[in-house]
Design brief:
Blueprint lengths: L1 E3 L1 E3 L2 E3 L6 E6 L2 E10 L3 H19 L3 H17 L1 H12 L3 H21 L7 E2 L6 E9 L2 E5 L7 H12 L3 E5 L6 H13 L6 E3 L4 H9 L4 E7 L2 H11 L5 E5 L4 E5 L5 H13 L9 E7 H16 L19 H16 L3 E4 L3 E2 L9 E2 L2 E4 L6 H4 L6 E7 L2 H9 L3 E2 L1 E5 L3 H10 L4 E4 L15 E2 L13 H5 E9 L3
Parallel strand pairs: 1-5, 8-9, 8-11, 9-10, 11-12, 13-14, 13-21, 14-19, 18-19, 21-22
Antiparallel strand pairs: 2-3, 4-5, 6-7, 7-24, 15-18, 16-17, 20-23
This protein binds NADP nicotinamide-adenine-dinucleotide phosphate (NAP).
Length: 485
């Protein structure tokens, strides 16, 4: 079992309370994966103090010099890809292949932002008067807090951390208690890469306590959060009284529309991958397949075929394509929703069963669930499940399919499968979502374009990822210069 402490002011630090907690492998709960110092309010305050003290020197370091530290950290992480992927699988449960891709994405994010460091500047604008100049200048904000969920335990902290650091901010990162090892491994890589003490601090501990201390701290200039809508809304309200900058990216209930002209086998393959990949524990997972009535039965049949092909088990074992739910309560929630859906009139076509024999005995395993005849207003069609549970909803035609897709509070990712380019483009215009995919899985993001939701999926303030990510972590000064005298 690994033993982790918090990373505060460049030191591995026990919790001031002395408390520790242990995480277990969701594929085999007999295995203790790691122990953690259980940080609390006092540890969060110490981390903010360290970040505040480190900020001026980091701000005054040039952006390309900061970028070189990101590059060095990326190289360290790349050299440890296999070891990190294995640890990620042991703690979070996704398959080793999925974990390896996530570590690879993390490396790419740091490299992308390192390159971008040469471009963080401003704009020059024409002045009304001769021999005068107008320009803008970007500056870091100060201490920023990052609060992240467990489902992408390394890539998600990375896509906040990279723009925060390269812009010159000092950071306090609070990862999810369910899977904090990757955030602490990021801190280790940055320490080895030469990041000055105090610029990055990682405090593990209860969201309510550590998160609350960060959200209400007057020295925290901005907070970027990813997680559930309920928690994000609460933090947003804590930031509002002092008008701290807020970036809240939250849940989804993502549709994939399948039109009658689609290649149904291809459509079923995409929907199954987007629904059950990473055990459905993805904010952009497809959880509603909205299918034109005339092909609904044929599509569902093919979908069941694909769902049955998933091999559920320990993600470290060869041939496994779907790991466990991250913990017992998520598994129970998934199974409860399968039952609720049936009580509301849906038909369980396949899966949705707890697996507990032989190799599954000690893990949080279930088969992926395909539910048909789901009504658009049913709970299973409206509430985020965050597991491998998919509802098939039938629509009379294209317009009704869009109305169903939009008839929801969330708006994160949305896909359509069709050969009709006109409909695909009308869908792009009318769908209420931050990410639109055409003939692609609703999951999976390119790191170079902006990412974020609309409606209840986001605070609708600043986008993450791509070059746009820098906007949240910087403020702009307008400078007027007269050189006529
Ligand atoms: P969560 O329960 O909202 O927790 C997210 C983070 O917030 C964790 O670090 C958690 O700490 C912390 N937290 C909990 N209560 C808090 C409080 N009162 N004040 C401050 N922080 C608090 O979400 P999750 O279960 O980890 O992740 C799943 C959710 O994340 C889903 O809704 C999913 O859609 C969403 N998600 C969204 C995106 C996106 O980009 N839009 C990406 C991935 C996931 P503890 O772990 O210590 O409780």
């Amino acid at each position: 079992m690994r033993e982790y402490k918090n990373f505060i002011n460049g030191e591995w630090t026990s919790a001031q309370s002395g408390e520790v907690f242990v995480n277990h492998n969701p594929a085999d709960i007999r295995e203790a994966v790691a122990s953690y110092a259980k940080g609390g309010r006092a540890d969060a305050l110490a981390a903010v103090d360290a970040a505040k003290a480190a900020f001026p020197a980091w701000r005054d370091t040039t952006a390309p010099a900061r970028g070189r530290i990101l590059s060095a950290a990326a190289n360290i992480l790349a050299s440890r890809r296999d070891e990190l992927a294995e640890l990620l699988t042991r703690e979070e449960g996704k398959t080793k292949t999925e974990a390896g891709m996530e570590v690879g994405r993390t490396v790419d994010i740091f490299r992308f932002m390192a390159g971008l460091s040469y471009t963080i500047g401003g704009q020059v604008m024409p002045h009304d008067l001769p021999n005068n100049m107008l320009f803008t200048k970007r500056e870091p904000l100060g201490v920023v807090a990052l609060i992240t969920p467990w489902n992408f335990p390394i890539a998600l902290p990375a896509w906040k951390l990279a723009p925060a650091l390269v812009s010159g901010n000092a950071v306090v990162l609070k990862p999810a208690s369910q899977a904090p090892s990757m955030a602490l491994e990021l801190a280790r890589a940055f320490a080895e890469a030469g990041l000055p003490k105090g610029v990055l601090n990682v405090v593990v501990g209860s969201g309510r306590e550590v998160g609350d201390a960060l959200a209400t701290h007057p020295d925290v200039a901005a907070l970027s959060f990813t997680g559930s809508h309920a928690v994000g809304r609460g933090i947003y309200q804590q930031l509002a009284p002092r008008m701290a900058r807020a970036q809240m990216e939250m849940g989804g209930k993502n549709p994939t529309i399948v039109l009658a002209d689609a290649d149904l086998d291809y459509a079923a393959r995409l929907v199954a991958a987007a629904s059950f990949g990473q055990t459905g524990q993805v904010c952009t997972a497809t959880s509603r397949a909205i299918v034109e009535a005339k092909v609904a039965d044929a599509f569902t049949e093919k979908l069941v075929e694909k769902a049955r092909a998933f091999k559920v088990g320990n993600g470290l074992h060869a041939g496994i394509t779907m790991g466990p739910a991250v913990n017992a309560s998520e598994l129970k929630g998934n199974l409860d929703y399968v039952r609720i859906a049936q009580e509301e009139g849906a038909e369980l076509c396949w899966g949705g069963q707890r697996l507990d024999g032989a190799e599954h005995e000690h893990g949080h395993f279930m088969t992926p669930a395909v539910l048909a005849k789901v009504k658009p207003n049913a709970r299973i069609a409206q509430e985020e499940v965050f597991g491998p549970v998919l509802g098939v909803i039938t629509a009379g035609d294209f317009d009704e399919a869009i109305a169903i897709a939009n008839g929801i509070e969330y708006g994160l990712s949305a896909s359509i499968i069709t050969r009709d380019i006109n409909k695909a483009m009308r869908y792009t215009d009318r769908i209420e979502a931050g990410v639109v995919k055409i003939n692609q899985v609703s999951t999976g993001l390119a790191l170079q374009v902006p990412f974020g939701g609309v409606k209840h999926s986001s605070s609708n303030s600043f986008k993450e990822q791509g070059a746009t990510a820098i906007d949240f972590y910087t403020r702009v000064k307008s400078v007027y210069l007269d050189y006529s005298a």
